[in-house]
Amino acid sequence: MDEDVLKTICRDRQITKFRFYGFFKNLKFFEPYLILFLLSKHLNLFQIGLLISIRELIINFFEIPSGIVADYWGKKKELYCCFLFYILSFFLFFLTDSFLLGALAMISFGFGEAFRSGTHKAMIYIYLEKKGWQEYKSFVYGRTRGASLVGSALSSLVAILLALSLPDLNYIFLFSIVPYVLDLLLIASYPNYLDAPGKSTSVCLSAFLKRMFLGLKSNSSLRRLLLAEGLFEGSVSSIKDLVQPILESLAMASGIVLIANLSQKDNLNVLLGLLYMIINIAGVFASRNSYRLIKRFKAPRLLNLAQLLLIISILIIGMLIKQPVVVCLAFLVINMTRDARKPLYIDVIDDNMEKEERATMLSLGSQLKSIFTVVIAPAIGYVADTYSLSKGFVALALLLLVIFPFSWNSKGEK
To answer: What is the DSSP string of 151-177?
Structure first.
């Protein structure tokens, strides 16, 4: 890669806007405490798994239609809708005191995710093509994802302050609305050519889907990439926040104290906030430097390695779930692997799909993620409530090991 071009990209105004988009989007102050918040509303892990499934079902049903809308109606317009749904979901979470209100909040959040997934990435592709920077996809996406993770790290730090000062965790959701309003205004400042609607919005849906599935049928590499993406992201989405009840149980049993004059509950909030901050800071490093790996190794091979690391980490958590340091390190590895893997996936899949169907194909990958999450999240919750959380993690690791060969790219081609 040309170092002068890399410097130019780093100084580019629109690239900076892309990075701020990710930064604001990841200021989800509730994230380190979401599972604990839902548990405090007298929901069990199975019910929480169902809420996650409800969110993913909404994403699943509207994933491909949202990609088509973005490709043919306009990407900026779709992102406006996306952030309005997010803001509504945060307000509903603030009101949540039952499974029903939690479900409504998850439904609204699901609409936001469905309208967002793939759309902003497609806008980045359009901009890189206009500037002649297509070969720098992994670098640009690594930088933008790095900015997102900086937002997540800062969000975790602010979350600690909010958790310690607010009377109830509900209020954190109101504070989360502010950065999403800022992101809505930021999207409005994007140049209109990034909206990039098709020449006609009267596209034949059946013909479009037929062409898309025929393309998938003839492209085994694309099929494997999408399956691997759905499997990896669905698994991580189902388990990444289960570190909260694990550490809660261990903290209550061992009486871990970080700050002497704080209650056990507040010490747990501080511990979780710090853990999420460390995870996200490590993720910044992994995401920003993942493009360097492509210089030495083939990206599809790296995607295979990421899948294996996920399986091993989940198995370690299941087998050593009573060891807090091991559990924290395993979750750190899972998240760093995810953050390093994502830019590689974006680089590889762009070389395996038609340009005019980018948003739709990226949305299809997200839809597969939703399908896996719909199955995995409540299943782990049920096993955890019926047997133990440890057995849930072991069972998931074995399931991923069985499915893994079907997503393996043996040729390593792009």
So the answer is: HHHHHHHHHHHHHHHSSSTHHHHHHHH
Give the 3-state secondary structure of residue 242.
helix
pTM: 0.81
Confidence of residue 204 (pLDDT cuts 50, 70, 90): low
Q: How far apart are CA 153 and CA 303, in angstroms?
A: 25
Q: Do 177 and 87 touch, CB atoms closer than 8 A?
A: yes
Determine the Cα–Cα distance for residues 324 and 156; give it in Å rounded to an integer.
19
Give SS3 for 12. Answer: coil
Residues in the chain: 414
For 14-136, strand residue ranges (E) read: none
Helix ranges restricted to H, 96-169: 99-116, 119-131, 137-165
Q: Which helix (H) or strand (E) holds 57?
A: helix 45-72
d(CA 144, CA 136): 12
Question: CA–CA distance from 236 to each of 177, 223, 229, 289, 411 (Å)?
Answer: 25, 20, 11, 21, 26
Cα separations (Å) of 171 from 85, 277, 296, 311?
18, 20, 47, 36
Tokens of 77: 């317009």
- Report the distance separating Cα 40 and Cα 30, nearest Å: 14
Contact call for residues 364 and 123 (beta carbons, < 8 A): no
- Contact assessment for residue 371 and residue 82, using Cβ atoms and an 8 Å cutoff: no
Task: Express each pLDDT in 273-312 by its tens digit.
Answer: 999 999 888 887 887 777 677 667 777 788 888 899 999 9
Half-sphere exposure of 290 (CA within 13 A, CB side): 34
* CA-based nearest residue to 34, from 48, 18, 16: 48
Separation CA 146–CA 151 (nearest Å): 9
SS3 114: helix
Provide the 3-class DSSP secondary structure of residue 44.
coil
Residue 79 in tokens: 């992102």
Q: Are 255 and 264 a contacting pair, CB within 8 Å?
A: yes
Q: Report angle CA 341, 344, 347 to the nearest 5 degrees.
A: 150
Q: Among 214-218, 326-330, 409-413, which range has the highest average pLDDT?
A: 326-330
